[in-house]
Amino acid sequence: MMNIEETKTTAREVLALLGNPVVVVGSINADLTVETARLPRPGETVPGGPLATLPGGKSANQAVTCALLGAKTSFIGVLGRDAHGDLLYQSLRNAGVDLSGTSRVDHPTGSTLITVDSQGENTIVYSAGANAALSEGQVSAQAEVIKSARVLGLCLESPLEAVQAAARTAHEAGIEVVLNYSPITTVSESLLKLVDVLIVNEHELAVLAGAPIDPANHEELQAALEGLGFARAVLTLGADGALVLENGVFVPIPAFPITAVDTTGSGDAFMGSLLAALAAGESLARGACLASAVAALAATRMGAQASYQPAAVVADFLNN
Ligand code: RIB
């Protein structure tokens, strides 16, 4: 396994190259967040701190990460015509994300209820709201935006017809399709066939593969991923870093040592960094070095988009 100094050197090299276009199609949510000493058990009430309304949504988080790191980024999604929609629109605009493919409808903006404990762990309940209005038609109308990117990022918080339409458009145009299999949903084989790179955690992979797989058993892991049709994949392992499958071998990527304040959106920061790195023509393994750093930095602050930092701050983190 690469040590942290080697990982930082690679991450710095990758960071310097970002800029090529990325498109992210999918979800955007207002995260209604409360900190608690510990997460409540079912049926239990626990006291919490003040309620914060923070910008989130897996896809929007990925787009914000990409843009802050310097990639030309477009986001295609749906917001409500409400105060949460305004908050999110502004958060993406401030990060430099192109929102010309994002529409607004008369439904409440997507939202989540999030609790964060003193270790930075969370629980999230998702209410799709306006995200449910993302249609195949809207995605098709933005086909030129998708085709002008180098990489497409997808997750599963949006209607699957829209996800599939975006994947098909990108695939047919030879644009790399990256899917985060989250939240866990039943997906068709035809969607998976359009995906070039899969990003999963252990739990998601177990569901997709139909059985838990020990990440230490590389032979079994590779057979499972290849059996699902993926020669390129990233298995994220939380505090144990990530395992990248590429060119027939696994490359372990270390996690950066940090004290976690809130891990909400860290996985999206990881994926967003990877999208920007792939768009720049970098390998998965080299991109994952930067992604590991950006995800760690995000976990040191509260919130998802609110915890993301511009390239200059990431560079400082890598220089320390
Ligand atoms: O991955 C974290 C994100 O998941 C949050 O921002 C929340 O909106 C949910 O989509």
Verbal overview:
The model has no long low-confidence stretch (mean pLDDT 97). This protein has twelve helices and 14 strands. By secondary structure, the protein is α/β, with parallel strands linked by helices. The protein is globular and about 50 Å long. Helix 2 (58-68) crosses helix 10 (266-279) and helix 10 (266-279) packs antiparallel against helix 11. The strands form three sheets. An eight-stranded mixed sheet has the order 4-1-9-10-11-12-13-14, with helices on both faces. The protein has a four-stranded mixed sheet with strand order 3-2-7-8. A two-stranded parallel sheet has the order 5-6. The site of alpha-D-ribofuranose has 16 residues, from strand 2, helix 2, strand 8 and helix 10.
